[in-house]
Amino acid sequence: MSKPKRLHPIAIFFLFFASLKELIFPIIAAFVFGRGASSWDFPFTVYFAIAGLIIFSIYGYLKWFTFTYEIDGDELKIKQGIFVKKHRFIRRERIYSIDITAGLLQRLFHLVAVKVETAGGGNEPEVVLTAVMKEDALHLRKQLLEVSIESEVTEVDFQNLIEPIAKTQWKLSNQYLLFAGLTSSGIGIAFMAIIALATQLEDWIPDQYIIDTFGYLFQSSLAGIIIMAVIIVLLSWVISFSGTLLKYGGFIIDKKGDELEITRGVLEKRQLTLSITRITAIRVVESLLRQPFGLVTVYVESAGGGSKDEQLSTVLFPLVRKKELKDHLREVIPDFAFEQPIEPLPKRAKRDM
């Protein structure tokens, strides 16, 4: 049994900004519509801002002070709540993965964030520790994911106990990383984001400038409109390409016994520990841009789901050749390295389609 621990004190600022982010739109609405524009004179605006900062700072401190976690036997205990106290007890056998990430701000203070995923926990992590020391995070992962020998071994085999754990490493090469960026399907999302941003900027751009711009486009030749569309598409592609490089840069899989440690990310370092015994299925995705090159992305489905941005799955191989997929699976998760025959529907089924 360990003693109850609090998050690192810097978590007060993270909680402060998280609360401010959740209420930023109501604050703006109150600032704009709550009073007449003429009533927002200099003293009142300053007092309003100072009072808001003080309230959010106190809230962040109280939220940090009342949050503790500890490991008691086979349970992770979480105590939190300012006015309403909440006690959560998470059994170790329910935990299927622990995700350790380090954003830019956390890396400045040599801290990491820990996300504990459980079976049946839904789309969100069961527990999020926003700021802890890396040593504490690794100790927490070891305590929660490593099953004791007494609970796993019925007959003690001394030779197996002293035998070192087999280790395997799989790494995404720079060539495949660049090609993953070039063929990323995120270009469509980036394109829609640019269009959405342009519509939001309409309120900030003078009406006459918008009229002149669209008037020029309608009066110009077809070549001018095509050039403008190409520029937007290229900008979307650059954003998608950069996002893929930052997301999957330094992608490494370390297989240690029955555990997979997936490390990735350039700006935000992420390390996910996944038990192979919790993997229930694999999903192979062939995007439109990658089909001509015979390239696929492989996801693993595990008990409890995965991250939202990966459709509740976990990326196992960001990019591999389809004909080499079986070899890669045999190297990392051999239980899923089997033949996958695909047979077309019989001709008589066309009548029902």
TrEMBL record:
Which keywords, in A-to-Z order, does the entry hold? Membrane, Transmembrane, Transmembrane helix
Q: Does the keyword Chloroplast apply?
A: no
**Family annotation (InterPro entries):** YdbS-like_PH
Q: Does the keyword 4Fe-4S apply?
A: no
Protein name per UniProt: PH domain-containing protein
Spans traversing the lipid bilayer: 12-32, 44-62, 176-201, 221-246
Q: Which domain of life is it from?
A: Bacteria
Looking at the record, the residues that make up the YdbS-like PH domain are: 64-144, 256-325
Protein species of origin: Anaerobacillus isosaccharinicus
